[in-house]
Specification:
The protein is mostly helical. The chain is built from 9 helices and no strands.
Length: 256
């Protein structure tokens, strides 16, 4: 990427913070407006869909809009073969920024609604069927993101990824955290969207398993990407920015 690493790291931190603020804040707002749990989840999921779509569209051109350690790790793993993924030093910078941003977003949401700034969640989510839900949610997310990239349709990521997460709120038992950074951030708030610290370990482990499964599905469905070719770039290649046909190929590299 041509964007300096420092700006990309800031974008990942800001995006992760905003995402968690949306998730936690809309959950608090929903519980204040209705006692119907179904309506609370509906409000929470709709706010997340709109917020996530906007954040991907806004920050994707800067950092790739990962906002998620498993997406960053998956991009690094696949990029080792294709040569266009983040380097190890970028991964080492992205992930702490995502986690710090997520924690900041939870604290910010609590502050906006007059909640204690930091109060560990008491919402226990320690159950096997919830872990399975996280495996499914994360595998589907990785399959979607990298499938869009592999088919040159990454320009649809803001709508597609946000829509998938909104749907996964409802079809998974865990309400689709699918993100270790967001999971950690949500432990800092004892509100609707929170998760008890004791539930973090299995959730994150399930997300890592889901990411690996998702990458396996990408290979099974789309095949292995061609390894990076050494040598000078072909000026007629569709990845050449001067070529009017280059946009799909370049967009495929945006997320991740």
């Amino acid at each position: 990427m041509s964007v300096p690493l420092s700006r990309r790291v800031v974008a990942e931190a800001v995006g992760s913070a905003a995402l968690v603020a949306v998730v936690v804040g809309s959950g608090i707002q929903a519980t204040e407006l209705t006692r119907d749990v179904g309506l609370q989840l509906l409000a929470n999921s709709l706010a997340t869909v709109f917020g996530l779509g906007v954040l991907i569209a806004l920050l994707g051109p800067v950092s790739g809009a990962h906002f998620n350690p498993v997406v960053t790790l998956a991009a690094w793993a696949t990029g080792r073969r294709t040569g266009d993924g983040p380097a190890a030093r970028e991964v080492a910078a992205y992930i702490p920024a995502q986690v710090a941003g997520a924690v900041t977003g939870a604290i910010l949401a609590d502050a906006m609604f007059g909640e204690p700034l930091v109060r560990w969640s008491t919402h226990d989510r320690f159950a096997g069927h919830l872990w399975l839900g996280e495996v499914v949610a994360t595998a589907g997310l990785i399959l979607l993101i990298f499938g869009l990239a592999r088919t040159g349709q990454a320009r649809y990521a803001p709508v597609a990824v946000a829509s998938y997460i909104g749907a996964a709120y409802w079809f998974t038992s865990s309400t689709s955290f699918a993100n270790p950074a967001v999971t950690v951030g949500r432990a800092f708030t004892d509100t609707f969207a929170g998760i008890a610290p004791g539930s973090l370990g299995p959730f994150v482990a399930a997300q890592l398993v889901g990411a690996a499964l998702g990458l396996g599905l990408v290979v099974a469905v789309f095949g292995r990407p061609a390894p990076a070719q050494a040598g000078p770039a072909d000026p007629a290649s569709p990845a050449d920015p001067a070529d009017p046909q280059a946009e799909p190929a370049l967009a495929a590299r945006t997320l991740p």
